[in-house]
Amino acid sequence: MDSIEKDKLSGSLRRGAVKKNVAAIHVSGKLTLLQRKLSNVLLLNAYDTLMSQQVHQIDARTLCMMIGYNSNDMETLKQSLRGLAETVAEWDMLDEEGRQEWGVSSLLSYAKLKGGICEYAYSPALAQKLDDPKVFALINLNIQRKFTSGHALALYENCYRFVRTGSTGWWSLDLFRRLMGVSDSPYYEVYKHLNAKIIKPAVAEVNKTSNIVVTPETKRVGRSVSEIRFKIAENPQLSILDLDDGEGVRRSDLYKRMRALGVSDRLALQWMKEHDEAYVRKQLDYVAGQGSVKNPVSYLRAALTQDFSGTTVSPRNQSAPVTLSAQGAERARRLEILQGLVNGRSPTQRDADKRLFSSKLEGAALLDFENYGWVSSLNHAEIIAFWQEIDPEAFA
Fold first, then answer.
1. Strand ranges in the chain using DSSP code E only, listed in sequence order
2. Crossing angle for the helix pair 150-160 and 200-209, nearest 10 degrees?
3. What sequence ranges are listed for the domain Initiator Rep protein WH1 (predicted)?
4. Local confidence pLDDT in tens for the 396 residues of the chain
């Protein structure tokens, strides 16, 4: 940290200069577990271009894979997207000048499925809030996948956004019931029922499953509970690197090597989260061994995705015609196209692509793919067929 100039630090590290009353966007709790997961995947897919693009796209099959839908179940996907478009996000917060700001927006301004692509957009006001790490914290998808209860995931989301302050602050029970999606049920107007059926099970799952530990506290008016808040601490057993954190990682030599190549702070943290240190080091060493590379960031991205270090020939040189047979030249041409296809996917899509393809493999084929990624010789024909389904004209 001492070696990094403060003006070059990301927002999460400069937060000491920001008011500590972290503002959260409250999202109606009437979302199913799958809809909540869908919302988070869509946000992660769009995050890098929230302010520069109005419209975002993701392959529908990839999206289904990330959420846990059957990849052919478009009707369920349509219903879930409709639910997000009908869901209200609300904020009530102080702006940078200390003025009160209240706002409301649908969670998605629109969504469209066409040609196997899911296209969607956020309202400009909501996109601005989602893009600000002081307002909204990205949810780690590896943690999200572990949740089995929509109430537990809703509690986690609403608590995690206050992780740096250590407490959610006091919520009225009316607001809490709304966040949990049970505001329309007279049964949960009785705190005893709310505590037994919603609070206790959700707290137990959050503490067992996630990277934080939450503890509920209540206020009473007379003998009745009127408000609730949750104290928040890191879970020492499950705490992992999150997308907007990583002070310790920034001190590592791997992080500094990536930054020296021109990798952005957020992308370096993300790659350190997605891969173990030995794997990242191996790919960095491989890229460094290729000499002058025109775009080292893109090349490292491809190396991390496809494990270039496991190949005997640099993918940058595989199309050299002087030593290749006609069959080898065609394979090299396909690999070059394949590299472009992979590089064109977002990090979320690339992760889903690899998991979707590997789910169809077993035995030696699976091991070879785990070792060599998309340049796996044992799976070459299947890999080409897989990507032709995504882009039928790519290899023409």
1. 26-27, 56-59, 88-94, 100-106, 110-114, 117-121, 171-172, 212-221, 224-234
2. 70
3. 18-159
4. 333 333 433 332 232 222 223 345 666 667 888 888 888 888 888 887 888 899 999 888 878 777 776 667 788 889 989 999 998 888 777 666 667 788 889 999 999 999 888 999 999 999 988 887 666 666 777 678 788 888 999 899 888 878 878 898 899 999 899 888 888 889 999 999 999 999 999 999 999 988 899 999 999 998 899 999 999 998 876 644 343 445 567 778 888 888 888 888 777 887 877 777 888 888 888 888 776 666 788 778 877 877 776 644 444 444 433 333 455 567 777 877 888 888 777 777 777 788 788 877 877 778 778 777 887 777 888 888 888 888 777 777
Does 283 share its domain with 379?
yes
Q: Is residue 112 part of a domain?
A: yes
Say yes or no: 110 and 58 in one domain.
yes
Residue (of 373, 365, 207) closest to 282 by Cα position? 373
For residue 179, CA distances in Å to 174, 230, 240, 292, 388 come to 9, 13, 26, 53, 43
One domain for residues 206 and 253: no
The answer to whether position 126 is within a domain reads yes
Q: What CATH number is given to the structural domain containing 225?
A: 1.10.10.10
Decide which of 111, 133, 155 is a domain's last residue: 133
Closest CA to 220 of 167, 180, 173: 173
Last residue of a domain, one of 133, 162, 186: 133
User: Distances from the Cα of 1 to the Cαs of 5, 14, 163, 273, in angstroms?
Assistant: 8, 12, 21, 19
**CB neighbourhood size of 70 (10 A):** 10
Q: Are residues 266 and 179 in the same domain?
A: no
Based on the domain organization, do 322 and 368 belong to the same domain?
Answer: yes
Domain count of the fold of the chain: 3
Residue 246, classified by CB atoms within 10 Å of its CB into exposed (0-12), middle (13-18) or buried (19+), is buried
User: Could you tell me if residue 233 is inside a domain?
Assistant: yes
Longest dimension (CA), the chain: 87
C-alpha pair distances (Å), 10 with each of 250, 268, 272 = 11, 12, 16
